């Protein structure tokens, strides 16, 4: 995939609505390390696994220096709120229905789905260091991740 972000690249700034309809910006996390992950759709099996794992491992991620986990999908805030309540999620879920942020992170495009090439969300995870001015730098970028076991692998890398 072209235009994928790599370590050291500027993290595209964003402001999106969370599950409660409040604006959340990358710059809100000035001086902190955050994980920004992109997933196709709330309440689907792989996305539920990933969101529940990020919630379960959140204390470990915080110990490893991660201030927040931001999950971004094309779902509307109302759908995100239902997902959060149903699965008791503690990660921040953000709505990108226009797929602007997904596109900026190269997390939307052609992908294989059951042997067919389709346009869709590419499951991706970024570790972003946000400086004191609110500007993010990619510390790590992973594309086409598998939902199962992903958070554990990420945590091992963060601890290394």
Layout of secondary structure:
Layout: E1 10-11, E2 15-18, E3 23-25, E4 33-38, H1 45-56, H2 58-63, E5 68-73, H3 77-87, E6 92-95, H4 100-104, E7 108-113, E8 116-121, E9 124-130, E10 136-143, H5 150-159
Parallel strand pairs: 4-5, 5-6
Antiparallel strand pairs: 1-10, 2-3, 2-6, 4-9, 7-8, 9-10
Description:
This protein has 160 residues and is an alpha+beta fold. It has helices spanning 45-56, 58-63, 77-87, 100-104, 150-159; strands at 10-11, 15-18, 23-25, 33-38, 68-73, 92-95, 108-113, 116-121, 124-130, 136-143. A hairpin with a 2-residue loop joins β7 and β8.
Briefly, what is this?
The protein is of the alpha+beta class and 160 residues long.
Mean pLDDT equals 94
Rounded to an integer in angstroms, the radius of gyration calculated over CA atoms is 14 Å
**Uncertain stretches:** none
Helix/strand-derived class? alpha+beta
Summarize the helix and strand pattern as letters: EEEEHHEHEHEEEEH
Cα(first) to Cα(last) distance is 28 Å
The strands making up the biggest β-sheet line up spatially as 1-10-9-4-5-6-2-3
Number of strands: 10
